[in-house]
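Model it.
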Amino acid sequence: MVSDAEILKLLERRDRVAFNGLYENYAPLLYGWIGDFTEDKSIACNLLEKSFVDIWHSIKFYNPDYITLFAWLLRITMNNCLKILGLPSKSLSKNFNAFRYYHMEQ
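Modeled.
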């Protein structure tokens, strides 16, 4: 598993191999989180794909001094769930807190 710092350094140069590493490190966690909101695997896969496309286009705006990489990835995914599934933001808070606790314990 490649460290976040190494991935970010390469992503600054738009390295696609580094992006694949980012995907491998975080896609299973994000997909599991998305699964809490939809049982439709096709929708979950589309949400995950859209989230990683958004991540690719937004990586230049990521600031590690402000937020952890995982929290930033999760925020993008949460926003996509809100928009695409039409969920109220209150429905995310319970799942976000549980997921954050789980991730911190790992």
